[in-house]
Amino acid sequence: MTTPSASASPRETTEGTVYTVTGGDWDEVVQSAAEADDERIIVNMGPQHPSTHGVLRLILEIDGETVTEARCGIGYLHTGIEKNLEFRNWTQGTTFVTRMDYLMPFFNETAYCLGVEKLLGIEDQIPERATVVRVLLMELNRIASHLVALATGGMELGATTMMISGFRDREYILDIFELITGLRMNHAFIRPGGLAQDLPPGAVDQIREFVKTMTKTIPDYDKLATGNPIFKARLQDVGYLDLTGCVALGATGPILRATGLPHDLRKSNPYCGYETYDFEVATADTCDSYGRFLIRVEEMRQSLRIVEQCLDRLKPGPVMVADKKIAWPAQLALGPDGLGNSLDHIKKIMGTSMEALIHHFKLVTEGFRVPPGQAYVAIESPKGELGVHVVSDGGTRPYRVHYRDPSFTNLQATAAMCEGGQVADVIVAVASIDPVMGGVDR
Amino acid sequence: MSDANDSKPNPADEPNPASEPKSAHEPNPEKDLGTDNLPGQRGDHGEEVRVQRGMFGANNGGDTSGYGGLVRSVRLPGPAVRPYGGWFDEVADELEGALEEQDLLPETAIEKTVVDRGELTFHVVREHLVQVARTLRDDPALRFELCTGVSGVHYPGDKGRELHAVYHLRSLTHGRLIRVETSAPDSDPHVPSLVALYPTNDWHERETYDFFGLIFDGHPALTRIMMPDDWQGFPQRKDYPLGGIPVEYKGAQIPAPDQRRSYS
Fold first, then answer.
1. Has residue B14 been placed in a domain?
2. Residue B46, CB half-sphere, CA atoms under 13 Å: how many?
């Protein structure tokens, strides 16, 4: 047995005291655990663990196979996005917020832009086409996010087929996003006032094609998992959280709807014209992980319905607010070094119109001013209520932007869902929350 | 759950005399100048939170643009007068009535009520925050069951009320959303915790403490949540620098974001 002094003996050198650490005190730990004669152990799961959804650290107190206490350690992916926003202009904000919950970038962007538009008082001036494209992108994004939830959730149970199919189908959606925005993730495509640019040629056809394939693919998930006895045995009655618990802990989204309450902000507080779309709110009454799984599958079906309705509604028109003091002046085009300002636009402002050049310069370097005040906008993201609290002091930069990320709030339910259950069920419960650490830590 | 139409008052028919004089003949410097033609819309109404001097964020005499003598006040929307419009009056009446029943004068608890951009905000004195929140949650006519957490805002120029804690409360029963705001001075950054009422605020209050240094009295374990446990300072305060290094882009040195010219 090693003594502490032997494992880290100090030695004087010209550089100062040097400690040579040669092995830990595991012998003592093992011995004292044996002497204590109980199986109570504290296990750190994560932050680097394949089944904890990114850099989530779970601190579990275990008695045998039973979890007696579960706590989350978060903050490993904190990047200070909210602070950074205060040093860029309002339009640049979308570039940051899209990176928060990286599995639902369009929701982050839309929520932010709705907040800025509310502060500007231009909600009524957003072109119809821009709003329809926003809804279209959000619903496609909802499918992509749910697919990742199913895929990673399945993988953590050892169901690798779920993982492969989920990521395969998500890839079709990312292809559509790449076609439309130029990027698979982190798009910064939705901007205060509208969109960065219009849909490119061929986008509508590709989405229609996708809707056709996806309608055929979704039943495969039912065949694969919904009735699967192993899958059901792992998910049913695991991660139980009833309505009282959900409301007290602020859990929203599929977790809340799994208790039977059809609370969906798209229905109860519609935004972006959701009240005009025809869709159902999926619910379950099991309060468990299995119910949440069923809701996610059903929501993908409903999202496809909304996507189809969006495609039918797309009418040619502008995609940016007409106010030239707000509309970002860029005319994007694909150049030899990637997507950038179109040469024609540069030629026009540099060569023919000094006014246009001045306005372009002012708007890009300085940005537009937003009247002082605060606004709160909440939208129904795949994970629940995504709220944005935007404060302006009348300047060209956000004074404060706070994201109420649903993953952050829902993750608080970990203790309530896991304590008293088995260690293996912790994985299922956390997967059913579907936390994305980019959103949790921001 | 209530219908979409009555869950949100229509901004068009909502009277807001405090911030928007409606009559076209009434002199209104903002409108006469034409807000459409002016980039900035800082009015002379509302509550002053800061006095800004100079331009471009230069405050150490480095600004040679001639704007150094500029003095502007930054004002947030001020208190509204009745009627607030829509269901706002109903909520305000119910809240005031319920507080009176508990022998708490509404004027003592609620500093001011702001109606702005179709949103209702109660500014609550921090001593009475818990009682007001409990009333908002439990009164059958109010029933704000869901708290969406707390957001901190730092107004260094708002002397005596530098740190604000902003709560958004949602009523699933009535389909309503209100904002409750409370403030604390920098010298005494204490606000009562709402964790006992809304357990969801556990992490949210830790986050606000972590970033703003607001101490939520009564929180079961107020520790840092995002930043490392031994971190010094509160990063989201306005006097806390963003940091960063200058980077080279196409041959030019671009300064760190917080060193760049600011037009705010």
1. no
2. 25
User: Kind and range of the H or E element at B210?
Assistant: helix B201-212
- Write out pLDDT tens, residues B101-126: 888 888 888 888 888 888 999 999 99
Could you tell me the CATH number of the domain that includes residue B209? 3.30.460.80
Distance CA A135, CA B197 (A): 35
CATH number of A81-326+368-441: 1.10.645.10
- Does residue B223 belong to any structural domain of this protein? yes
Overall number of domains in chain B? 1
Q: Which residues of A148-170 are buried (b: 16+ CB within 10 A; e: fewer)?
A: bbbbbbbbbbebeebbebbbebb
Q: Is residue B211 part of a domain?
A: yes
- pTM greater than 0.80: yes
Chain B closest CA to A347's CA: distance in Å? 21
Count residue pairs from A and B with Cβ separation < 8 A. 157
- Supply the range of the domain harboring residue B209: 84-237
Instruction: List, for residues B12-36, the tens digit of each pLDDT value.
Output: 444 444 444 444 444 454 544 444 4
To the nearest whole angstrom, how far is the Cα of A223 from the nearest Cα of chain B? 35
Kindly state whether A266 is in contact with chain B, defined as any CB-CB distance less than 8 angstroms.
no
Out of B151, B170, B211, the one facing A389 most closely (by C-beta) is B151
A:220-259 residues touching chain B, CB 8 A cutoff: 247-252
Rounded CA gap, B75 and B48, in Å? 4
* Furthest C-alpha separation in chain A: 87
Say which residues have a Cβ less than 8 Å from residue A265's Cβ, sequence separation at least 6. Answer: A271, A378, A379, A380, A385
